[in-house]
Amino acid sequence: MDTSGTVSSARQAGDSDGLEALARVGLIAYGIVHLLVAWLALQLAWGGGGGSADQSGAMATLAEQPFGKPLLWVLAIGLLALAVWQLAELFRQVPGLRGSGERKKKAVTGSAKSVAKAAVYVFLAITALRFATGSGQSSSSQQQDTVAGVFGWPGGRFLVGAAALVLIGVGAYHVRKGLTKHFLKEIDTAQASAGERRLIERLGQVGYPAKGIALALVGGLVGWAAVTFDPEKASGLDGALRTLLDAPFGKALLTVVALGIAAFGVFAFFRARYPQRT
């Protein structure tokens, strides 16, 4: 079977103007979600709100606004387009997957990242659709239910522990990505001004480590759930941020992380303006 035509068609689909326009909407949606999470985290830090400081809390906040539910539909469509745009990257990895050595290793790593990112975008899109249709559920409750279900599988406790290690690893990767400025490969700033490039760089340097810390904390809670065999301990991002708040100097630490998450959200807006060209 000749796959060259299929790969070529997939590349053209991934590079189409229509899909890119929707992907830009998805990146804006991704940024909005992070800004809302940051706002909820700041409210949590300073005692101004009782909502969940996570993705479900962000979607619930949007749903409560005038025209919020139609906006959630738009965000969901954009996020799904962003997932498709990300999956199109898999077809660009085909030549590398057919190779060997370092080239193949790089292609496998790139493919895994594309699938993981697409899964996140699909999850957020489904969350947006659920809140748009009035069937939204707390992210913390979903994670606890998932962990409880996995505990019932053979070796479920070890699977949950493995998932925790993956989350901690992803968090560490985000921190490293921010410190090494590796995130600049995800954005094409050739048309940006010198001032914008400096701002984009600073936003990434702050945003990626902050998001990495939050993800590592989520992973830590999942790991603790595995150790204690208690799914209630896997309380998601909201639980992670509340754990941070309970630490010494918690209010200051949570404020710093919240501002970092906001920086990541603004970085996503710049990615929408200057999308990556591959």
Tell me what you see in this structure.
It is built from eleven helices and no strands. It is mostly helical and 278 residues long. The longest helix has 35 residues, at 194-228. The model has no long low-confidence stretch (mean pLDDT 90). Helix 1 (4-15) runs antiparallel to helix 4 (68-92) and helix 9 crosses helix 11. It folds into two domains: 1-137, no CATH class; 139-278, no CATH class. It is globular and about 45 Å long.
Structure described in brief:
The protein is an all-alpha fold and 278 residues long. It has 11 helices and no strands.
Question: How are the elements arranged and paired?
Answer:
Layout lengths: L3 H12 L1 H30 L8 H9 L4 H25 L1 H4 L3 H32 L6 H13 L4 H25 L13 H35 L7 H10 L4 H24 L5
Helix pairs in contact: 1-4, 2-3, 2-4, 2-11, 3-4, 3-6, 4-6, 7-8, 7-10, 8-9, 9-10, 9-11, 10-11
Keywords: Membrane, Transmembrane, Transmembrane helix
Pfam families: DUF1206 (PF06724)
Organism: Modestobacter versicolor
Characteristics:
single chain; 278 residues; mainly alpha; 11 helices; globular; transmembrane helix; transmembrane; DUF1206 domain-containing protein; DUF1206
